[in-house]
Amino acid sequence: MFPELFSIGPVTIHSYGLMVAVGVITAVWLADARAMKTGVAEDGFMFMLGLFSLIGGFAGSKILFWLTILPDVIANPSIMLDFANGFVVYGGLIGGILTAVVYCKIKKTDFFVCFDVAAPVIALAQFFGRIGCFLAGCCYGQQTEGSFGVVFHDSLYAPVEVPLFPIQLVSAGLNLINFLFLSWLWQRKPKKGAVGAVYIITYSVGRFVLEFFRGDLERGSVGALSTSQFISIFTVIIGVGMLIRLLYYKGEEKR
Question: Which pTM does this prediction carry?
Fold first, then answer.
């Protein structure tokens, strides 16, 4: 649609990068504000947690992308020098969460409490990210004859001049709904870790289903499943396991 929004001299503002930046800034600001308001963490803690998690998430998303195209990387290692393209959301989530676990351990702060605060805003950041995907034309849907198909006239990624299922917009909408639902759940003060567990489940189930409507092939596969669908099976199990544990754990509320 609009891969490049505008240019200021030699600097070009790309729609995907801008939307990701807006999503990250909004998510970190909201998480920090919520943490301070409820006494979960001191001023600036969630900002630093978000910053390090972002770095870890970037690394994770690139590593998983390289793994999905491993034969190409082996044949041409210079692919790994391209840091502007090629990311896998699941890799970013895994890398970001692992980084957050380490940071919280160093700061002697309860990770699950922080994860409960962060889970809704992660969904919000993903909403902005998928809008960026739509504007750039990446992560596009399958060709369709339906009335809701969108046609890209200028894209470096999606096929042009053919109607495609607007998977990016559907994904964005579901992420926004997930943000609202998880925010509502968090405000009801469930047991520690519940909001994070529900996020893992809702995102994983949604991602598994939406993968059937994706049209881009550079996502890797494990048998008949895409890489993300394969990972979704295990993340759902993890999320459900967390909830089952909470049912049998007689602990205090998270805040």
Answer: 0.85
